[in-house]
Amino acid sequence: MRPLLEATAEDWDNVINIGLRGVFLCSKHVAAHMVKQKKGAIFNISSNHALATLPDTEIYAAAKAGVNGMTRSMALSLGKAGIRVNAICPGFTDTPHYRTWLNKDGNAAEVEREVRFVHAGNRISTPQDIGRLAVFLASDGAEMITGAEILIDGGMSARLYNSKVC
Predict the structure, then answer these.
(1) pLDDT tens by residue, 126-149
(2) Considering 34, 60, 89, 156, which one is annotated as catalytic?
(3) Most exposed among 22, 32, 85, 149, judged by the fewest C-beta atoms under 10 Å?
(4) For 27-34, which contacts have Cβ atoms below 8 Å and span 24 or more sequence positions?
Protein backbone atom coordinates (compact mmCIF):
# COMPACT_ATOMS: atom_id res chain seq x y z
CA MET A 1 0.00 0.00 0.00
CA ARG A 2 1.57 3.21 -1.15
CA PRO A 3 0.32 6.56 -2.40
CA LEU A 4 -1.17 6.46 -5.88
CA LEU A 5 1.44 8.79 -7.35
CA GLU A 6 4.25 6.60 -5.97
CA ALA A 7 2.74 3.25 -7.00
CA THR A 8 4.37 1.50 -9.93
CA ALA A 9 3.19 -0.94 -12.56
CA GLU A 10 5.26 -3.55 -10.71
CA ASP A 11 3.29 -2.80 -7.52
CA TRP A 12 0.09 -3.27 -9.54
CA ASP A 13 1.29 -6.59 -10.97
CA ASN A 14 2.38 -7.92 -7.57
CA VAL A 15 -0.85 -7.07 -5.76
CA ILE A 16 -3.16 -8.11 -8.59
CA ASN A 17 -1.26 -11.37 -9.15
CA ILE A 18 -1.51 -12.37 -5.51
CA GLY A 19 -4.88 -10.89 -4.59
CA LEU A 20 -6.90 -11.51 -7.77
CA ARG A 21 -5.05 -13.90 -10.08
CA GLY A 22 -4.27 -16.24 -7.18
CA VAL A 23 -7.95 -16.39 -6.19
CA PHE A 24 -8.91 -17.01 -9.82
CA LEU A 25 -6.45 -19.90 -10.20
CA CYS A 26 -7.38 -21.54 -6.88
CA SER A 27 -11.10 -21.29 -7.63
CA LYS A 28 -10.67 -22.54 -11.20
CA HIS A 29 -8.72 -25.63 -10.17
CA VAL A 30 -10.87 -26.60 -7.20
CA ALA A 31 -14.04 -26.02 -9.27
CA ALA A 32 -12.84 -28.57 -11.82
CA HIS A 33 -12.94 -31.25 -9.09
CA MET A 34 -16.24 -30.02 -7.66
CA VAL A 35 -17.94 -30.17 -11.06
CA LYS A 36 -17.17 -33.91 -11.16
CA GLN A 37 -18.82 -34.29 -7.73
CA LYS A 38 -21.77 -32.10 -8.78
CA LYS A 39 -21.51 -30.12 -5.54
CA GLY A 40 -19.24 -27.87 -3.61
CA ALA A 41 -18.72 -24.55 -1.89
CA ILE A 42 -16.01 -22.07 -2.74
CA PHE A 43 -15.38 -19.07 -0.53
CA ASN A 44 -12.97 -16.51 -1.87
CA ILE A 45 -11.19 -14.37 0.68
CA SER A 46 -11.71 -10.72 -0.17
CA SER A 47 -11.67 -7.73 2.17
CA ASN A 48 -13.87 -4.94 3.47
CA HIS A 49 -11.67 -2.76 1.20
CA ALA A 50 -13.75 -4.09 -1.71
CA LEU A 51 -16.73 -2.15 -0.32
CA ALA A 52 -15.20 0.80 1.56
CA THR A 53 -11.56 1.77 1.55
CA LEU A 54 -8.86 4.25 2.57
CA PRO A 55 -6.43 6.59 0.82
CA ASP A 56 -3.32 4.98 -0.68
CA THR A 57 -4.92 1.55 -1.06
CA GLU A 58 -6.10 1.85 -4.67
CA ILE A 59 -4.39 -1.30 -5.96
CA TYR A 60 -5.43 -3.45 -3.01
CA ALA A 61 -9.01 -2.16 -3.20
CA ALA A 62 -9.09 -2.91 -6.94
CA ALA A 63 -7.87 -6.47 -6.37
CA LYS A 64 -10.46 -7.13 -3.68
CA ALA A 65 -13.31 -5.53 -5.65
CA GLY A 66 -12.21 -7.78 -8.51
CA VAL A 67 -12.48 -10.80 -6.23
CA ASN A 68 -16.05 -9.82 -5.35
CA GLY A 69 -17.06 -9.32 -8.99
CA MET A 70 -15.42 -12.58 -10.00
CA THR A 71 -17.17 -14.35 -7.11
CA ARG A 72 -20.59 -13.20 -8.32
CA SER A 73 -19.84 -14.35 -11.87
CA MET A 74 -18.48 -17.71 -10.66
CA ALA A 75 -21.64 -18.24 -8.62
CA LEU A 76 -23.69 -17.87 -11.80
CA SER A 77 -21.34 -19.97 -13.93
CA LEU A 78 -20.95 -22.82 -11.44
CA GLY A 79 -24.41 -22.83 -9.88
CA LYS A 80 -25.77 -25.28 -12.46
CA ALA A 81 -23.07 -27.72 -11.34
CA GLY A 82 -24.23 -27.48 -7.72
CA ILE A 83 -21.34 -25.26 -6.65
CA ARG A 84 -21.92 -22.22 -4.45
CA VAL A 85 -19.39 -19.38 -4.53
CA ASN A 86 -19.20 -16.59 -1.96
CA ALA A 87 -16.72 -13.92 -0.89
CA ILE A 88 -15.68 -13.53 2.73
CA CYS A 89 -14.77 -9.87 3.37
CA PRO A 90 -12.83 -9.55 6.63
CA GLY A 91 -11.60 -6.33 8.13
CA PHE A 92 -8.85 -6.13 10.74
CA THR A 93 -7.96 -9.66 11.85
CA ASP A 94 -5.60 -10.52 14.70
CA THR A 95 -2.83 -12.22 12.74
CA PRO A 96 0.99 -12.00 12.85
CA HIS A 97 0.78 -9.53 9.94
CA TYR A 98 -1.59 -7.34 11.97
CA ARG A 99 0.74 -7.50 15.00
CA THR A 100 3.71 -6.49 12.83
CA TRP A 101 1.71 -3.57 11.44
CA LEU A 102 0.74 -2.49 14.97
CA ASN A 103 4.35 -2.40 16.08
CA LYS A 104 5.82 -0.65 13.04
CA ASP A 105 5.77 2.85 14.57
CA GLY A 106 6.40 1.92 18.18
CA ASN A 107 3.01 3.10 19.46
CA ALA A 108 1.15 -0.23 19.28
CA ALA A 109 -1.05 0.37 22.34
CA GLU A 110 -2.36 3.69 21.03
CA VAL A 111 -2.96 2.33 17.51
CA GLU A 112 -4.72 -0.75 18.88
CA ARG A 113 -7.02 1.42 21.03
CA GLU A 114 -7.96 3.42 17.94
CA VAL A 115 -8.52 0.28 15.85
CA ARG A 116 -10.77 -1.20 18.54
CA PHE A 117 -12.64 2.11 18.85
CA VAL A 118 -13.87 1.94 15.25
CA HIS A 119 -15.37 -1.53 15.80
CA ALA A 120 -18.88 -1.83 17.23
CA GLY A 121 -17.89 -4.50 19.75
CA ASN A 122 -14.52 -2.92 20.57
CA ARG A 123 -12.65 -5.96 19.22
CA ILE A 124 -11.28 -7.15 15.92
CA SER A 125 -11.83 -10.49 14.25
CA THR A 126 -9.74 -13.54 14.98
CA PRO A 127 -8.80 -16.21 12.44
CA GLN A 128 -11.28 -18.43 14.32
CA ASP A 129 -14.10 -15.96 13.57
CA ILE A 130 -13.27 -16.14 9.87
CA GLY A 131 -12.98 -19.93 10.06
CA ARG A 132 -16.42 -20.30 11.66
CA LEU A 133 -17.94 -18.30 8.82
CA ALA A 134 -16.13 -20.47 6.27
CA VAL A 135 -17.37 -23.66 7.97
CA PHE A 136 -20.93 -22.32 7.87
CA LEU A 137 -20.65 -21.38 4.19
CA ALA A 138 -19.42 -24.90 3.42
CA SER A 139 -22.36 -26.46 5.28
CA ASP A 140 -25.79 -27.49 4.04
CA GLY A 141 -27.20 -24.71 6.23
CA ALA A 142 -25.88 -22.22 3.67
CA GLU A 143 -27.32 -23.97 0.60
CA MET A 144 -29.16 -20.83 -0.55
CA ILE A 145 -26.21 -18.48 -0.09
CA THR A 146 -24.26 -17.96 -3.30
CA GLY A 147 -22.84 -14.94 -5.05
CA ALA A 148 -22.76 -13.10 -1.71
CA GLU A 149 -20.17 -10.73 -0.27
CA ILE A 150 -20.18 -11.34 3.46
CA LEU A 151 -18.63 -8.66 5.64
CA ILE A 152 -17.01 -9.87 8.80
CA ASP A 153 -15.43 -6.74 10.21
CA GLY A 154 -17.05 -6.24 13.60
CA GLY A 155 -19.24 -3.40 12.36
CA MET A 156 -16.31 -1.24 11.27
CA SER A 157 -17.81 -0.69 7.81
CA ALA A 158 -21.11 0.40 9.37
CA ARG A 159 -19.53 3.62 10.62
CA LEU A 160 -20.36 6.69 8.54
CA TYR A 161 -17.29 8.56 9.69
CA ASN A 162 -14.61 8.12 12.27
CA SER A 163 -14.45 10.69 15.04
CA LYS A 164 -13.90 10.42 18.76
CA VAL A 165 -15.41 13.89 19.14
CA CYS A 166 -18.87 13.34 17.65
Answers:
(1) 999 999 999 999 999 999 999 999
(2) 60
(3) 32
(4) 27/70, 27/74, 27/85, 31/74, 31/78, 31/81, 31/83, 34/78, 34/81, 34/82, 34/83
